[in-house]
Amino acid sequence: MLRGLTVDGDQVPEQGAEVLADDTTIGKVTSAVRSFGLSRPIALAFVRRQHAEPGTRVSVRFSGTTVAATVSALPFAR
Prior knowledge:
By secondary structure, the protein is mainly beta.
């Protein structure tokens, strides 16, 4: 399912970054940017249905690092 992710920290995930739940890959980032309105990175990602509920905590692995993220309903809002 296509869902939004609000990403903790300042790093913007790259396209194709893995979305993880309990160290298991559950999806991939399709695009990401820094949201000036939300003051944080956001991403669109395809995730498995059982992890698609808004508010679900996940991780995103990219560029040799893993950061926390939260599944968000679309469209993104404050």
